[in-house]
Amino acid sequence: MNTKISKAPKASSNNKVMTAGRAWAQIRWAMVAIVGTLGACATRLPPEAPRAPSPPMAPAPAPSAPFDDGPLPGTITRAKSQWVPVRWSELPGWGSDALHEAWNAWLRSCERPAPTVGALCADVRRLSIATPEEQRAFMESRLQPYRISASDGNASGLLTGYYEPTLKASRTPSAEYAWPLHKLPAGVRNGQAWFSRQEMDTQPQAQAALRGQEIAWLADPIDMMLLHIQGSGRLLIQQDGRTERTVRVAFAGTNGQPYRSINTWLQQQGAPITPWPDATKAWVRANPQRVNELLWSNPRYVFFREEALSDLDAQFGPRGAQGVALTPGRSIAVDPGSVPYGTPVWMSTQGPAARFNKLVLAQDTGSAIVGAVRADYFTGWGDDALAQAAGLKQPLQLWALWPR
Asked: Biased-composition ranges for Pro residues (predicted)?
């Protein structure tokens, strides 16, 4: 189309308007033609080279190049376990966990940095508000996963649960509140061989050492034993018939005697033990004359220390053996001869009470937590935490995530 505008002969004003209108229409159509031609040319340009697909937003189990492709390090031998190196892709469910939920527990461990893993703490703090992809990339680039097994290569173990009980208590003894919790007696060290539980109740020398060491009294002997088993708890202190305040009693030490399960003793008597602790309390009500016999079946006694419980402290669990507050669902108790405190651990369990693959932190231990692949899972506090902890006794696999 010819878009040149020729000079028109002189005409009337109306003719001038008509001529100008026709000229402008010709220009407009020419511009449309040019744009259309350019657009047609654009569609005939060579196609752009295909781009690599973007990674999925939701984490998915997959190898993470280049960190999953290089040569693996050697096996690490510890006092009670061996760690066999594996690929990230071998971790069941890796990529499916909400890592940010475990980051608070990791930050807690960084309050008491452990050897080797503590060197990561600066980056752990920096990544506390990072995206899941950034947190995962950090772990894959800086950590090497190791499958934890016994010295004979057995990588299967046992998972149980524990929680922080909340119990009513009194500062003074009475017919209702008759079962004391004690501080560590003067001159007695944690774990030092001392009087057994039965001797503490019957021998004058032991009773004299315990006099004045009472923190509070509980209304139920099984609640007292429950605190001894869990190692810590919250007390709703009663004073003159009213609630004074809530305090925490934390583990301070033991009498150095061996631990014996009162559940095992009850089973030997033919008594039901589930649901715990309700079945045990029912047995005590039906057999009041045998209460001491039940309690004395476990010679180990736990001493406590009282701690103030601020509103902030109440949002976290008690301090574990690492010395940091435990995080519900993300802290585990381990055998430190197998897994050092502060170690990030990938945990997998598939059982009747729970099925999950998740990141947890080794931050506590316990007298019954012994062995290479053994963990006690901290469920929190309250009735729901009790129900979850009481139901956990199922198979377990663990992977230590150790700095490269």
From this structure: 47-64
Q: How many helices (H) and strands (E) does the chain have?
A: 11, 15
pLDDT, one tens digit per residue, over 143-184 is 999 999 999 999 999 999 999 999 999 999 999 999 999 999
Question: 336: phi > 0 → left, psi -120 to 50 → alpha, else beta; which?
Answer: alpha
Helix boundaries (H) for 113-241: 121-126, 132-142, 197-202, 204-210, 221-230
* pTM score, whole prediction: 0.78
Give the separation between CA 46 and CA 62, rounded to whole angstroms.
34
Structure tokens at 239: 């004073």
Q: Where are the beta strands (DSSP E) in 82-232?
A: 82-85, 143-149, 157-164, 166-170, 179-182, 214-218
For 164-315, CATH number? 2.40.240.50
**Whether 272 contacts 183, CB under 8 Å:** no
Partner residues linked to 111 by β-bridges: none
Residue 201 CB coordination number (10 Å): 15
Minimal CA–CA distance to 404: which of 89, 93, 131, 138? 138
Helix (H, G, I), strand (E, B) or coil at 155: coil
For residues 381 and 83, give the distance between their C-alpha atoms in angstroms, rounded to a whole number. 33
